[in-house]
Amino acid sequence: MKILDETSRTLNEYLLVPNLTTEDCTPGNVDLSAPLVRHRLGEQSPIRIAVPLVSAIMGAVSSPRMTISLAQCGGFGFIHHNQPITAQAEMVSNVKQHKAGFRHSDINIKPTATLGEVAGLLQAAERDIAAVTDDGTPHGTFLGLISTRDFHPKRHDLNDSVESRMQPAKSLVVADPSISLSHANAMIWDHRLDVLPVVADTGRLESIVLRRDYELHKTFRNETIDSDKRFRVGAGVNTHDYQERIPALIRAGADVLCIDSSDGYSVWQRNTLQYVKGEFGDQTPIGAGNVVDGRAFRYLADAGADFIKVGIGGGSICITRDQKGIGRGQASALIDVVAERDAYAKETGIYIPICCDGGLLSDYHMAIAFALGTDFIMLGRYFARFTESPTKLVRVNGQLFKEYWGEGSQRARNWSRYDQGGEQHLVFEEGVDGYVPYAGSLYDTVTMTIAKLKATMISCGSTTLRAFHENAVLVPVSHQSYLQNTAEIQLRDRPSDPGQ
Ligand code: MZP
Question: Which part of the chain is the CBS domain (predicted)?
């Protein structure tokens, strides 16, 4: 028996102390790009992501739609493996069939439709925006535009009619369809518009260009998409059927694989890594995990892992700590693994990125994780809240929620993630099945999260994640100051009492 000489700490238990902010520390100068896979020190990782956020390998999170939307924001998604091999391969090839670039709207809706009907149409067509015409056809007079942003539960009643939400047509510029996209976007900027309808000579509505697409286009930076403008996509795998699953995923176009297990410090992960390296060389990068200490990091690094995920028991839907007494506070786990990653890089000249997975309950926890040295972050609950996640939107007591369940719950029964080496079923649960408050489209919230991360880095005098990690000054938070902060948040959230 050995007892570590430390207290297991969560990300919640740290705050950042500002450093000097200099003239070059502006949001425009902050570079959030991160390496995704191993590389030699001093060289660039062969795969980088523009925004260091990746979606969890979970059935309630990473659908093709989520993966594409996240890639459009500069992040990266992993299609889950708790499904037959052909179904997962189909999802991967679905993502690869989409070409990155500007998305146009071709849905036309009658102005008499209710917002609920429009929401249904948009969801079915996997679109965010639709045009409203007077007779509901592309030939009708163009009246306005409606987007999924209008369905944000806090802002609008679902029973409002489209007409009451339409933007006045005079605020829109109508352009000839032969104009180039760059010209269209220049017009959007000049006229300070969010959208630009493109209309054919016949007066028929052809397409719509969104300002947001233009902004997202600028964040692609070639790291998130390879030369044929296809989105990059990841896929989860397990340590059981990998000899059949992995070749099928590679054929379907998966760019990166990740062995998905609640406890990655096992000979089964080493065998899977060695199979991939033996069969496919360095052609197909593969991550491993999850681990919570330096020993496990080194074991998987030596076995060939291209990145390593950190975190056991910290997931918002996870009850592994209660069921098995296994885990470690996410901050303590990161500090240990980051130290081993850096020591490994110094010894071998090979840098293996690490991914902080779970235990991130708010945006500032992400900033703490980057300050502690994670290269990128995997999120489940955060992404499950959005329109783009594959789960049902439900109304409970007048409020909208999305379903969200753990892979170790009875609902997912992902036995290959929690397998104890016995029969192929879950003996006991390690995850819960619940709901998360609906938060509208991914784009708005991710944009906000990015802005917060940049603001934190600016306060800490850093314009790159590496500099942020090297310069960060952190301080542990006392229990008393944690309680005071929580009380202040509750005070801010309480509606003011008119009687006082
Ligand atoms: P979170 O972002 O919801 O806090 O955590 C997501 C992470 O929790 C996943 O990436 C995965 O590592 C982990 N997870 C998924 N299912 C379970 C479970 O059922 C779980 N226990 O812990």
Answer: 166-227
Q: Count up the domains in the chain and report the number.
A: 2
Measured in Å, residue 318 CA sits from the centre of ligand 1 at 6
Alpha-carbon distance of 355 to 344, in angstroms, equals: 16
Q: In this structure, what token pair is assigned to residue 499?
A: 């009687």
My answer on whether 290 and 427 are in the same domain is yes
Q: Which of 212, 258, 417, 460 is catalytic?
A: 417
- Does the residue 240 lie in any domain? yes
Active site residue 149: no
Q: Looking at the structure, tell me whether residues 52 and 126 fall in a common domain.
A: no
Q: Which atom of ligand 1 is nearest to the CA of 58?
A: 15
139 assigned to some structural domain: yes
Distance 222 CA to ligand 1 centre (A): 30
pLDDT tens digits, 71-96:
878 899 999 999 999 999 999 999 99
Residues 100-135 pLDDT 10s: 654 555 567 776 776 667 767 776 666 666 676 666
Q: Record the pTM.
A: 0.82
- 177 CB burial (10 A radius; 0-12, 13-18, 19+): middle
Of 183, 209, 235, which residue is a domain's last? 209
Which of 104, 99, 109 has the alpha carbon at shortest distance from 199?
A: 104
Per the CB < 8 A criterion, the answer to whether 268 and 239 are in contact is yes
Q: What is the pLDDT of residues 243-291, one digit of tens each?
A: 999 999 999 999 999 999 999 999 999 999 999 999 998 889 999 999 9
Nearest of 385, 274, 293, 294 to residue 344 by alpha carbon: 294
Give domain status of residue 156, yes or no. yes
Range of the domain at 132: 108-209
Any domain includes 310 = yes
| Active-site pick, 25, 73, 258, 318 | 318
Atom of ligand 1 nearest to the CA of 320: 21
Specify whether 385 is located in the same domain as 355: yes
Tokens linked to 25: 């520390």
The CATH number of the domain holding residue 90 is 3.20.20.70
